[in-house]
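Let's inspect a concrete specimen:
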Amino acid sequence: MTQPYQQYPHYGWQPNYGPPPENNLVWAILATVMCCLPLGIVAIVKASQVNSLWFQGFHAEAHRAADEARKWAMWSAIASGILIGLYLVFIVVMFAFVGASFWSLVP
């Protein structure tokens, strides 16, 4: 009696899902350096997970991590813009008060 043909798994072979998604690591690093540090660090962590998840076969999770990295980098830039805007408003208000008090002292 002959043994039926046993098919061995092909280790390391994966179906062609295309290239991995863009990990947005550059945007995450730029957001960390130039914008808001805490949110940028979260973006770097999410961006660093993309390729490892992709090559482990977790394609949906890799896409989700790439989207979250982009989201955190974007929120870092938005938070930085809001803080800079509030700072500029504060400076303008302070100059207005200083100017008003200065001109009230001038005879």
